[in-house]
TrEMBL record:
PANTHER family: PHYTANOYL-COA DIOXYGENASE DOMAIN CONTAINING 1, PHYTANOYL-COA HYDROXYLASE. One of its GO terms (molecular function) is iron ion binding. The lineage of its organism: Bacteria, Pseudomonadati, Bacteroidota, Flavobacteriia, Flavobacteriales. The keyword Signal does not apply. It comes from Kriegella aquimaris. This is Ectoine hydroxylase-related dioxygenase, phytanoyl-CoA dioxygenase (PhyH) family. Keywords: Dioxygenase, Oxidoreductase. Gene3D superfamilies: q2cbj1_9rhob like domain (2.60.120.620).
Amino acid sequence: MNELKKQFCEQGYTKLEAFLSSDEAKELRSIYDALLSDKQRTLHLRSDLAGGTDENRVERITQIMRPSLIEKQLLTHSAYKKALNLVKNILGDDMELDFDMLINKAPHTNTPTPWHQDAAYWINLPDKRAVSCWIALDKVYEENGCMWFLPVTDQKVLEHRNLPNGGALYCNVETSNAVAVPLEIGGCTFHDGFTLHFSKGNSTTSQRRALILNFRPKKMIALERAQGMDHTGVRKKRS
Ligand SMILES: O=C(O)CCC(=O)C(=O)O
């Protein structure tokens, strides 16, 4: 078993230091910045994970779901192909892209993304294989909001609550074993849907841009879509 797969299977997460070249990251950043600044085209897919509904307030943690529905060129970018190949190697040849999303932490907003499991956002599926590839488009470290993980213990979704006003889901967990994963531009992490993760707020003067690609078995994507789950909609707790 290769190292990436071994670490993912043992811990529920792993990292790849040089996933993208600086040119590849630059190409993605220019599409990313155009989407971030275009509130009109992204409005229906956009929210602030920090919570809040006032359109005039400064977004602290901007999330744009399914950016490739707007910028279709993303789907043919080498990042998507490379991630899919790595994910197939980790979890099997039937893995496909389920959805993509952007999460940006604006400068000086200092708002953590609370501890949560991605599976808390999803419907319960019989085949639970899933992996999120979190790609750093800026150098990330503790002060601007790099990812932190807790080694996965079992495939159970813990009790989650909603931050007020449509914010992120969170759960209360013991985090003394948490591991920070700083990355250079173009580095990435892979995490399982049950892996607890978090990021600190961005207290620096620049943005913290991340592109996230989520993969799961082709048959499970079909099952999700049949139940109306296409990852464009309102955040809900798993029922
Ligand atoms: O980018 C962040 O701060 C959080 C990312 C996250 O929760 C995820 O990719 O599932």
